[in-house]
Automatic annotation (TrEMBL):
Belongs to the eukaryotic ribosomal protein P1/P2 family. The keyword Ribonucleoprotein applies. It comes from Pseudodiaptomus poplesia. This is Large ribosomal subunit protein P1. Residues 77-112 are annotated as: Disordered. InterPro entries: P1/P2_N_sf, Ribosomal_P1/P2.
Length: 112
């Protein structure tokens, strides 16, 4: 990433933090005030790319979807079904292991 790109990114974050619409003119003003040398096309590109994006939502939702599915799946299984679910899980594990072995036999192994 070049200094120009990084400076435009920081300028856009400053504007978003102040709840100001990101425009090429505002980005240029911040970059000039910071005495950053930049190619004149960067502010326009950033403004165009961010005109339909909510920067605050992007920042606050960076990792929110990654770990949310596993706890929900664990909570969905009733406690009384644990033995039955465990037996089914073992059968699935065997199938997965067999499929992996088949892949190795077909010459798709990583360390052939």
């Amino acid at each position: 990433m070049s200094v120009s790109e990084l400076a435009c990114t920081y300028a856009a974050l400053i504007l978003a933090d102040d709840d100001v619409t990101v425009t090429a003119e505002k980005l240029t003003t911040i970059l000039k005030a910071a005495d950053v040398e930049f190619e004149p096309y960067w502010p326009g590109l950033f403004a165009k790319a961010l005109e339909s994006a909510d920067l605050k939502a992007l920042i606050t939702n960076v990792g929110s979807g990654v770990g949310s599915a596993a706890p929900a799946a664990a909570a969905a299984a009733p406690a009384g079904d644990a033995p039955a679910a465990g037996g089914a899980a073992k059968k699935e594990e065997k199938k997965v292991e067999e499929e992996e072995e088949e892949d190795d036999d077909m010459g798709f192994g990583l360390f052939d």
